[in-house]
Amino acid sequence: MFGTVNNYLSSVLSATDDYDGEALGTHISLRDVHVQNHNLYIAQPEKLVERFLKPPIDEVVSAHLKVLYQLAQEPPNYMEAYTQQAAACGAVVRLLQSLKDENWCLPLMYRVCLDLRYLAQACEKRCRGFTPGHVLEKAADCMMACFRVCAADGRASEEDTKRLGMMNLVNQLFKVYFRINKLHLCKPLIRAIENCVFKDSFPLPEQITYKYFVGRRAMFDSNYQGAVEDLSFAFTNCPDRFASNKRLILIYLVPVKMLLGYLPAKSLLQRYDLLLFHDLALALKAGNVKRFDEIVRDHELVLIRSGIYLLVEKLKFMVYRNLFKKVFIIRQTHQLDMDDFLAALQFVGVTDVSLNEAHCIIANLIYDGKIKGYISHAHNKLVVSKQNPFPPLISL
Amino acid sequence: MAQVKGSCQSFCPDGESKMRIREKLLHYFELKNGQKNTPGVLVKEFTRSAADAKMPQAKDMRTEQSLTKTVEYLLKDIILDTRKPYNVVYDFIFDRLRAVRREIVIQMFDARQTIRLLEPIVMFLAYSRYRLSVESIEKFDPKICNQHLQECLTGVLCCYEELDRQSSTTTEEPTLRQLERRCYIEGLYQMFNLGSPESFVRALTLPDYVRQDATFRLCFGICLSYQQGNLYRVLMGLPQLPHILCAVASIKLQGIRRSLLQIFTHAYNNKQLTVPAPYLLRLLLIDSPAGLQEQCRHYNLALTPDRKSVLFNKTDFRQSAETLSCRHEPFVESKLARIYLPEVLLLKKI
Question: Domain PCI spans what residues (chain A) (predicted)?
Answer without folding.
Answer: 208-389
